[in-house]
Amino acid sequence: MPSDIQQLITRFKTACANYDINSIDSHPALCETLDALAGDLGKDVHTRIQFGVGDVWTEIHKLWRDLVHAQLTFWDGDDSDDGEDAGSIKERRKQHSLSSLSVSLARFIRNLVASVPYNQIKAFEDEHIIRRLLHYYTSWSSMEDEEASFAARILTQMLSNIITGNEALISTLWGTYFNLQEDQVVLVRLLASPDNRVLLAALTMIISCMHESRSRTKMLTRMPIGARICIKLLDDMVKLYDADEGSDGARAFDVGYSIFTRIIEFGLVPDLYSKLAMTDEIVTPHQTTLLKLLDSYLQSTPVSSPGAKSRITKTHARLCPMLSSLFFSLSIYAQTAIRKSLRSSVSDYRSDDTQGPPAELDVLLPKVCETLVLTAQCIITIILAAHGSHHQGSPTSPNSTASTHENIHAFFKEVHQEGLGLVENIVELLRLLDRFLPRINFGKPVATYAGPRGERKDQEETSASSAQQLTPAVDNPGFNFLKRDLVRLLGILCSDDRAVQDRLRKCGGIEVVLNLCVVDERNPYIREHAIFALHNLLKDNAVNQAVVEEIKPTGQWDENGVLVDTPGAVRK
After folding, report:
1. What is the distance between the alpha carbons of residues 314 and 386, in angstroms, rounded to a whole number?
2. Where is this region: Disordered (predicted)?
């Protein structure tokens, strides 16, 4: 062995022999030696290899055992006769010394094991002890202490280095954690830390464990402990979203996003979404956050190569059943809640009806509608991606990507639940929303009522009080963009498809779309999307064109999208 390496080993052994865990005065010298050795080991992988094969592991194992014993028996045998202030100072000094020793040892091991499999295996023998120390430093009281939080971060970085790149150790650690009691799983505790630097260390370790492993990622989405970890992850993503660019919080968010990207690309979102459900809850906050991440992924993932295109197409195909089922359940819930709030069925509504306060307002309805918007946006993105790739791909092979794209497009056109198709469901929901959510023009709700064929008739703006009587005042941001995205989805589904065009006519979809060709501040660009949907409804369909011609109003549209009758005008 080279003499310089032997000198490092001798220095380490001497420092270990001269310290006593119960004598805090001996701790600084050992910390100083460990910190110096950490610097030397971090410079050269050859030095780490030679140091690791030296006779150093007996002392290392003993250091960990001493530390965990001292920390976990910190309050035992405290029969000191010192005064309260003196005893408190002594305790703080001892705690500070033990924390400093933990940090120095963790930093030393972190550098010793980097990219050296043998050293990783030897260091992993102390994993159960390291886990107990992490458990101690991630207690609720400890995580409020900056020194304890720092110790937890360095210990986590060390543990991450011990397993990184070592498949056997990663599998062992992951399997161990997922079979512990929840309160013993340090990952859950680390993810609850208020310190973004601790979160970054924990998230980095998680993504290292997930690397290219579908089985370990599956455990994260299907096992109870995995669900608890994901719940903490989703909470952290919400907290970190507004972190300053370039900060530890922003970097932690990026790593967390990468974790959910792996979950999405392995096709495991449906499993995780189900795990996040709660009894008697139509949708939970964590499910909504997951859909936001999914929506972001679908809209931002580039298709840069044939291989990437194939992978993304498979990812989209796996999502279709979940998204359609989710859309139906949320839409049916929303329709039921709206009907209850309006007291009477829309079919019984007459233009001369007056209406008091809503019979029942469902407090979950805004969250359901927010989730509906996300679901609709995901479906829209998938269909548009399929449509675009179909025209770019080769349709000659039945197993080609283009064939899968055709199947995706057809799936949403043909999917049914309880005898009702997706387009019919959207039309019914839009019909109810037109009653429930008055359009906003110049900051004021404009009440509407239906003409004899279902076409829109707007009341005068001066009758704002009447609008409040006709419909419940709904000012929750959860309703924003809902009608816009639903009519946009309708327009996409009926594009160049005679069967869908006819289905929409039969269920009154033409009248519903006509009623949405207006300005609504709650739904930016809804008029443009409705006009596009109407174009797709009428294209090459003489029957649909005749329906529109029959109910075509006379008069002029003003700049705000309101139909203004001219004197003497008669509606057909």
Report:
1. 11
2. 448-469
What percentage of the chain carries pLDDT values higher than 70? 80
Residue 507: φ, ψ to 5°: -100, 15
Q: How far apart are CA 66 and CA 57, in angstroms?
A: 14
Quick one: CA torsion of 331, 334, 339, 345, rounded to 10 degrees?
-10
Q: Give the pLDDT confidence of 73-126 residue by residue, as tens digits.
A: 754 444 445 545 555 788 888 999 999 999 999 999 999 999 999 999 999 999
Rounded Cα–Cα distance for residues 426 and 53 (Å):
68
Which contiguous run of DSSP H or E holds residue 99?
helix 84-113
**DSSP codes, 388-403:** HHHHHS-TTSTTSHHH
Q: What is the pLDDT of residues 466-513, one digit of tens each?
A: 444 444 445 678 899 999 999 999 999 999 999 999 999 999 999 999
- Is the Cβ–Cβ distance between 343 and 360 less than 8 Å? no
**If you search the block for the tokens 């939080």, which residue do you land on?**
149
Among 196, 174, 197, residue whose Cα is nearest residue 187: 174
What's 460's DSSP letter?
Answer: P
Tokens (6 digits) for 48: 């780490």
Q: What angle do CA 331, 226, 99 make, to 5 degrees?
A: 135
| Spatial contact of 210 and 262, defined as CB atoms under 8 Å apart | yes
Cβ(250)–Cβ(240) under 8 Å?
Answer: yes
CA distances from 3 to 9, 57, 191, 294, 439 (A): 10, 19, 44, 56, 82
Neighbouring residues of 310: CB distance < 8 A, sequence distance ≥ 6: 401
- Report H helices in 494-562: 498-506, 509-515, 526-538, 542-551
Give the whole-angstrom CA distance, residue 562 versus residue 64: 76
Residues 6+ apart with CB under 8 A from 266: 214, 217, 218
Longest dimension (CA), the chain: 107
Neighbours of 475 (CB within 10 A): 9
Looking at the DSSP assignment, which residues form a beta bridge with residue 563? 557
**Spatial distance between the Cα atoms of 41 and 456, rounded to a whole number of angstroms:** 76
How far is C-alpha 289 from the chain's CA centre?
A: 4
Backbone φ and ψ for 421, nearest 5 degrees, come out as -80, 170
Q: In whole angstroms, what is the distance from residue 420 CA to residue 328 CA?
A: 9
Query: Rounded to an integer, what distance in angstroms lies between the CA atom of residue 474 and that of residue 361?
Result: 10
Half-sphere exposure at residue 284, Cβ-oriented, CA atoms within 13 angstroms: 16
Residue of 409, 406, 426, 408 lying closest to 417 (CA atoms): 426
The amino acid at residue 22 is N
Contacts of 5 (CB under 8 A, 6+ apart): 47, 50, 51, 54
pTM score of the predicted model: 0.86
Q: Any idea what DSSP says for residue 258?
A: H
| Parallel/antiparallel/unpaired status of strands 444-446 and 563-564 | unpaired
Question: How far is 395 from 393, CA to CA, in rounded Å?
Answer: 6
